[in-house]
Structure formats: structure tokens, C-alpha cells
């Protein structure tokens, strides 16, 4: 701008000189044609000035390009206008304008490497409320609501005291998911840790022998509880997965309803089968059996059974 101002100053000086030159001092009369000659001389001077400006000025911007600086409000963006900060070094980008950047740095000269898509992870509708493809940001109360259908996969969890959560999700569910704490068994089934351990397993179904096979005993401490929900005189059978090596240890109590007396029965060293026949070996509604994985190839057993009137108690254990 300074160079342009100098050139225009030069222009004015040259025009002044041309008006005072010998050619323009010829007396002016309407009838002698001198006026026309004077005009021609002035035009020649202007042409010379234009040539001088062209030769000495390095400005190549056109008028349209210079008009990019014709800004309505400094610091406020507008189409086809240059970016010029306001007096407070601020600038407001047009609301619908798109800024395509190459490299951005903060005041400490740290380069921002996040892409536009990654920065949009922070475009959060409501702080503290989870949404797909959005960053986890707590609300003002340090709370966060996980999306209802979202899945949180964790590596290590600790409580405020720094204690690591050692339980697996399956273990937590078996203990804390009260909606699944009762399991209904209506026929022969393989008993598993995931589905049955720590649950109240209620057995129903009559008219056929139903067998429930316990998993391998490894000393895990897993506990399996069974309640009779129906009397099955066709036999309800519990058996270990490895009858060759695995046995039951412990005892069960059987109440004789005839004598109103109770006796205890223990398995033999090689017994790995337990049968409730609905009469002499128990199996009445409410009868209870519990198996605990106490060691490799060893199941601890305890329970409370009933023998109905007209029957005499007998051991429920067998090989």
C-alpha cells in the first residue's frame, strides 16, 4: 500500500509539472488550435507516467483482488474477503464456511495430529450421556450414563481403594444377576459352571428317568444346588463326569415320615452316582441336594431328603 501511495504522489507531481511545461504555457485561444495541442501533450505525459508506474511497481493484484480487502467488519468472515483480525486479535469464521487446514499448532507449537473426523468425537449432544462414535465425557457431577445397548469391554477394573476386580463377567453374573438366579431343569442335562453354578436349580418333570451330569471336579470350589419341584418316581439321577476316578464325599439326611425319625447316609469310597426315586431314597417336593467341587475327582455332597409314608429309607448312593 505504501508503494502505491508513492506512485500516486509521483503521478500528481508529474501532472503538475506537465501543466507548467512550455507546451502548456502557450496562450489559450479558441481559434488557434493550441488547446487541442495542449491536451495532446497532457495525454502524452499521463501515458509516460503510466509506463513509469508499470516499470517501478511490483504490485500485480487486479482491482478485483484488491477488493478482497474491502471488509465490512474487521474480525468477521465474509465470502470473497480476506481474513483480517479485529482489534482484539479475534476472528469469527462464517457459520457455513469450511476451513480446510494442512498443519495446525497450539501456542506451544505442538502439532495437532487429529483428523477432522477424530475431532468430531468431541461433538457431544449431552455431556455425561453416551452416544455412538462420541468420546466419553463426564457431566458436571462426574457422572456418565452408558448407552443402553452399548458393550463395555474392560481390561483391569479397580475400586477407589485401588483393589483390582478379579471376578470375570461370568462370575459376576452368577452372583449378582438376580433375574437368572433360578434355573429350571425339565429333563436330562449336562450341568455347567456358566449356567448352573451358584444358582437355584429346580428340577421338574415326571414319567421318565432324568440324568444330570456334573462337570469334572477340579477343586474350583464351585457349588451346585438342586431342589425337587416335582416327584419323579421314574428316578432323578446325579452322576459325576468321570465315574472311573471321581467319587462323592459327605452325607445326606433322610427324614422317614412314617417314624418321624431321621437318618444319615454316606457314599462308599467309589460311589459317583446318586438316585432319588421319589420313595425310599427321597425325591419329594422341596428335597435339597448340594454338590461342592472340593478337589480333583472329589465332590462334597450334603442334602435333606424325605421318604413318604409307607416307604422305608435306603441309601441314594451307588457306583
Key phrases:
rod-shaped, 21% strand, 19% helix, alpha/beta, five-stranded mixed β-sheet, 6 helices, seven-stranded mixed β-sheet, 319 residues
Q: Please, could you describe this protein's structure?
A:
Helix 1 (2-20) packs antiparallel against helix 2. The chain has helices at residues 2-20, 34-56, 63-66, 116-119, 169-176, 193-196; strands at 104-105, 111-112, 182-185, 189-190, 200-203, 210-213, 223-228, 236-239, 247-256, 261-265, 273-276, 288-295, 298-307, 317-318. Mean pLDDT is 86; it is low at 1-34. The longest helix is centred in the N-terminal third of the chain and has 23 residues, at 34-56. The strands form three sheets. The chain has a seven-stranded mixed sheet. It is built from six helices and 14 strands. Among the domains are: 2-56; 173-318, no CATH class. It is an alpha/beta fold and 319 residues long.
Summarize the structure.
The protein has six helices and 14 strands.
Strand count, sense and barrel status of the largest sheet are:
7 strands, mixed
Shape: rod-shaped
Which class of secondary structure composition applies to the elements? alpha/beta
Tell me how many strands there are: 14
**Uncertain spans:** 1-34
Q: Helical residue percent?
A: 10-25%
Radius of gyration from the CA trace?
Answer: 49 Å
Along the chain, the helix and strand elements come as HHHEEHHEEHEEEEEEEEEE
Straight-line distance between termini: 108 Å
**If you average the pLDDT, what whole number results?**
86
**Sheet with most strands: strand arrangement:** 3-5-7-12-13-9-10
User: How large a portion of the residues is in β-strands, by DSSP E?
Assistant: 15-25%
Q: Tally the helices: what do you get?
A: 6
Amino acid at each position: 500500500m505504501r508503494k502505491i501511495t508513492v506512485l500516486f504522489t509521483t503521478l500528481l507531481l508529474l501532472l503538475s509539472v506537465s501543466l507548467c511545461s512550455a507546451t502548456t504555457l502557450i496562450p489559450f485561444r479558441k481559434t488557434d488550435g493550441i488547446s487541442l495541442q495542449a491536451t495532446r501533450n497532457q495525454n502524452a505525459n499521463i501515458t509516460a507516467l503510466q509506463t513509469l508506474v508499470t516499470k517501478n511497481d511490483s504490485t500485480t493484484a487486479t482491482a478485483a483482488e484488491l477488493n478482497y480487502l474491502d471488509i465490512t467488519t474487521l474480525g468477521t468472515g465474509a465470502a470473497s474477503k480476506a481474513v483480517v483480525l479485529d482489534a482484539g486479535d479475534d476472528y469469527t469464521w462464517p457459520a457455513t464456511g469450511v476451513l480446510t487446514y494442512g498443519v495446525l499448532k497450539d501456542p506451544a507449537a505442538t502439532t495437532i495430529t487429529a483428523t477432522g473426523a477424530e475431532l468430531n468425537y468431541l461433538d457431544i449432544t449431552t455431556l455425561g450421556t453416551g452416544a455412538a462414535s462420541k468420546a466419553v465425557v463426564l457431566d458436571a457431577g462426574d457422572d456418565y450414563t452408558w448407552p443402553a445397548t452399548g458393550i463395555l469391554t474392560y481390561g483391569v477394573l479397580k475400586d477407589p481403594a485401588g483393589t483390582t476386580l478379579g471376578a470375570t463377567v461370568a462370575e459376576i453374573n452368577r452372583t449378582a444377576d438376580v433375574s437368572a438366579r433360578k434355573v429350571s431343569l425339565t429333563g436330562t442335562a449336562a450341568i455347567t459352571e456358566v449356567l448352573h453354578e451358584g444358582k437355584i436349580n429346580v428340577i421338574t418333570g415326571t414319567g421318565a428317568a432324568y440324568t444330570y451330569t456334573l462337570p469334572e471336579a477340579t477343586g474350583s470350589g464351585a457349588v451346585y444346588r438342586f431342589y425337587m419341584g416335582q416327584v419323579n418316581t421314574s428316578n432323578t439321577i446325579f452322576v459325576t463326569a468321570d465315574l472311573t476316578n471321581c467319587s462323592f464325599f459327605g452325607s445326606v439326611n433322610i427324614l422317614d415320615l412314617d417314624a418321624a425319625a431321621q437318618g444319615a447316609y454316606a457314599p462308599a469310597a467309589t460311589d459317583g452316582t446318586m438316585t432319588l426315586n421319589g420313595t425310599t431314597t427321597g425325591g419329594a417336593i422341596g428335597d435339597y441336594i448340594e454338590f461342592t467341587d472340593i478337589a480333583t475327582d472329589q465332590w462334597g455332597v450334603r442334602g435333606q431328603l424325605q421318604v413318604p409314608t409307607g416307604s422305608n429309607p435306603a441309601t441314594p448312593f451307588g457306583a
